[in-house]
Amino acid sequence: MSSLMTGKERAALRAHANRLSATVHAGQHGITGALLHSLDDALRTRELVKVQLGKQPDLSAKEAAGQLAAAVKAAVVQVIGKTVTLYRHNPKLERKPGAAPPWEV
Questions:
Q1: Fewer CB within 10 A of the end CB, N or C, for the chain?
Q2: CATH number of 7-90
Q3: Integer-rounded Cα radius of gyration of the chain
Q4: Can you give the chain as a three-state secondary structure string?
């Protein structure tokens, strides 16, 4: 479910994202290797992650979202203000029937 996500799937993920707080914070240095590493780790364990962007005069939030998504092979679920929500399915995560999704744990 990368960029080939349906509108219905994206809407469901947006609804889940409403209850999440930002897991990854981009500082004044923008998109760095350390930021991408943190984001990759968060996506691997949680799949649905919010990123709070810092002040980056050279990039709009949508442009930053696109760059982050491309760098970690994730899909942009939504961009609201300076907050970006990304999703990347991890088939290796253990899922129990009826259990909460990984981002709610």
A1: C
A2: 3.30.110.60
A3: 13
A4: CCCCCCHHHHHHHHHHHCCCCCCEECCCCCCCHHHHHHHHHHHHHHCEEEEECCCCCCCCHHHHHHHHHHHHCCEEEEEECCEEEEECCCCCCCCCCCCCCHHHC
Burial 21-54, CB ≥16 within 10 A → b, else e: eebbebeeebbeeebbebbbebbeebbbbbbebe
List pLDDT tens digits, range 71-102.
999 999 999 999 999 999 998 888 888 888 88
pLDDT for 56-67, tens place per residue?
A: 777 899 999 999
Note the pLDDT tens digit of each residue in 22-48. Answer: 999 988 788 899 999 999 999 999 999
